[in-house]
Amino acid sequence: MKCEEYSIDYGKLVIRFTVVRRKRKTLEIAVEPDSTVSIAAPLSASLESIERKVRKRAAWIQEQQRYFEQFSPRTPDRRYLPGETHLYLGRQYRLKVVKSALSTVKLFRGRIVVQSTQPESSKETKRLLDEWYATKARLKFSERLGTCLQRFSRPAFVVPSGMTIRLMRKRWGSMSKRRRLLLNLRMIQAPVDAIDYVITHELCHILEPNHNAAFYRILSKAMNDWEYRKELLERILA
Predict the structure, then answer these.
(1) Strand-pair partners of 13
(2) Which CATH topology does 85-236 take?
(3) In what order do the strands lie in the sheet with 85-88?
(4) pLDDT per position as a tens digit, 177-190
(5) Can you spell out the DSSP letters for 82-100?
(6) In percent, how much of the chain has pLDDT > 90?
(7) Residue 122 CB burial class (10 angstroms; 0-12, 13-18, ≥19)
(8) pTM of the model
(9) Which of 25, 78, 100, 165 is most buried, with most CB under 10 Å away?
């Protein structure tokens, strides 16, 4: 899918944004956790109409960017070395790597213990830890989806057609037109309250695809403390 890059002047500031065109009727602006601005636009939308929308929402865009900037600097890349800390469900665990005939990962006495046939290889440690996170995410996200469905008065109306989990750089989750729930693997590092926020947020998109007033009414009814949970997510995974 082609991504177009543009910018507009807004006072003394320059707002840069990317545009992805899809088969849709409305235009949607999103500010990502890294403060970049992305726009999903109808195939027929002119550049002039997109720029008008960006200028109209410029104050809101700046507000969202300031919100995300408070969590900077972001956590540095992990090196997968013994003694390093890693998150799981909102808690920090020290990484311990030991030599073993079998490769496994487990939690033990406040540590993530990686038993490895190649304990000197940080690449192998990363592979084993990534696989462990992925296994935990499949189990935990499925469990939390069942819980989040009960937040709605008619759970059957918001059941997704399926769930995909993968590592994403910008988004915590999304809901496709075919009602397939996509979740960021990184969320397995966040507290359950934050995981529930993302899942509930995406389930609301089955009822209302856009981030408009109707959407936030649905979200607030299903989860009245969603703003706290959103901030928790950004703070923990910064």
Answers:
(1) 10
(2) Zincin-like (3.30.2010)
(3) 85-88, 91-99, 111-116, 104-108
(4) 899 999 999 999 99
(5) TT-EEEETTEEEEEEEEE-
(6) 75
(7) middle
(8) 0.76
(9) 165
Nearest C-alpha neighbor of 204 from the set 143, 165, 160: 160
The structure tokens listed for 113 are 């213990």
The HSE-up count of residue 114 (CA atoms within 13 Å, CB side) is: 30
Q: Which amino acid is at 5?
A: E
Percentages (nearest 5) of helix, strand, coil residues in the chain: 40, 25, 30
Annotated domain spans of the chain: 3-69, 85-236
Measured distance CA(197)–CA(130) in Å, rounded: 23
CB 201 within 8 A of CB 173: yes
Q: How far is CA 131 from CA 86, 106, 236, in A?
A: 14, 12, 21
Q: Distance between the two ends of the chain, CA-based, in angstroms?
A: 28
Closest by CA to 37, choosing from 8, 76, 2, is: 8
Ramachandran angles phi, psi of 97, nearest 5°: -120, 125
For residue 164, give the amino acid letter. T
CA distance 44 to 27: 11
113, 132 in Cβ contact below 8 A?
Answer: no
